[in-house]
Amino acid sequence: MSSKCVWEYNRTGEEDKVAVVQFSNGTLGENENVNFKLYKNKDTKNPRKKHWRILTAETDRMSYVGNNFGTGSMKCNSLCKYFVGVLNKETKMMEIHDAELFNLQPYFPGEAFDEEMSSEKKEQSYREKVDFLIESFGTKKQKRALNSRRMHDVVSGTIQNVVAKAAEHAIEKKGVTALLDDVAQSESQDISVHLPVINTDAECREEVYSFDELISPAEYAALETASETFRDITSEDIQNMIEKKRYSCFVVENLKSMPQGEKQRDHIARCLWYLDNLIRLNFQKQIKSKFGLGENIPHVIIMKLLKNFTVVNYSSGSVKNMVSASMKVKIAAHVIALALHIEDFQTDLTVLQRDLKLTETRFLEIARAMRLKITKAKVPVPDAEPEIHKIGSLSLPLPSYEPSTKLNKRKRMS
Predict the structure, then answer these.
(1) φ and ψ of 143, to 5 deg
(2) Are 352 and 336 in contact (CB under 8 A)?
(3) Which of 98, 109, 295, 303 maximizes the CB count within 10 A of its CB?
(4) What is the C-alpha to C-alpha distance for residues 274 and 223, in angstroms, rounded to an integer?
């Protein structure tokens, strides 16, 4: 005959919960020889930390530890409420107590098991965690790549320290004003470095900037198929270009006045197509495959643009082609030289400057360095007042060039 019992809920506080443990590596053979200890957090004022508990278990062969906070705690404690019933067989009364689960893991001497270690693990970046996994379980190839990257980081850090010390020494020795003068002078010298090859002894304007130096015969031949769109362009196509605004103003204006002769028309079409790609390249920061020029761009042209108008940069473990500030100067100079050949050695510098989106001062400095004579002219604008444009012309003898020594005014904060 079954007997009846009555249960009673013992409303204990949060601190008096019964600890229910499980061992992560299995079950214990002898339960009597286990010494349990429960540690409470001293910070009772902190609403989170005052509930933190660490439970340890000592046996003859192994030590175990578990907690109810951090990554090692059991998530079920926050999702469910657990109880433990204690039955008094004589009175048939069962007391119900609140319970909390702990997952005890083996603890080996020398390991750190505290909040500080847990926070350090959380502060590790994704890259550091991946590197740790590669060190532990990676292949030989992955480990070699990891060591190579770390050596590169060390070398880069050393170089940065050396450069920083050299900069501090230069500032202390020469002063800020003298350094700014040196920078202005070096900038003017840098412009001449990136100019097309100039023949100062030329007997005619065509020889000052040789066309073959701008576009080689092999590149010129490769442009025949690529420039077919420009060569066979119609007025409807030009209107479509203007509406979509995908081409520069210089290119569109010259397409409007294409010569009728087949040979001359083909020559201008090739030059305009190449110039248009130079302008497109100017707006790229990191060069991607064919940088959106389409499928018909010749391979020799791609190699020419990447080799002559980009710099190689090593970043994030890979080599990339970048268009630096100095390369933008080089692109602008070659655009001007090519425009001179297209427009009979007199071109509108204002239109080119706006297409390349460079400052007028910088662009005119490039033009002066190329020995151009710069004048002003009124240019009619549809439905607006005439504008004053800067016109650059190439004439013999070449004018002399003196680099500008004016420094940009800088606002100083006191």
Answers:
(1) -65, -40
(2) yes
(3) 98
(4) 8
| 98 class by beta-carbon count within 10 Å (0-12 exposed, 13-18 middle, 19+ buried) | middle
Cα–Cα dist 44/341, whole Å: 84
**In the chain, what percentage of residues exceed pLDDT 90?**
25
Task: Tell me the CA end-to-end span of the chain in Å, nearest whole number.
Answer: 96
Q: Are 296 and 214 in contact (CB under 8 A)?
A: no
Cα 312–Cα 316–Cα 321 angle in degrees, nearest 5: 20
Give whole-number Cα distances, 165 to 7, 162, 171, 178, in Å. 78, 5, 10, 18
Report, as an integer, the average pLDDT of 184-198.
Answer: 68
Strands (E), 59-151: 63-67, 82-88, 93-107
- Kindly report whether the global pTM for this prediction surpasses the value 0.85: no
Mean pLDDT of 111-116: 52
Residues 6+ apart with CB under 8 A from 236: none
Q: How many CB atoms lie within 10 A of CB 141?
A: 8
Burial class of residue 149 in the structure, from the number of CB atoms within 10 Å of its CB (0-12 exposed, 13-18 middle, 19+ buried):
middle
Count of Cβ atoms closer than 10 Å to residue 234 Cβ: 8
Question: Both tokens of residue 221?
Answer: 């031949």
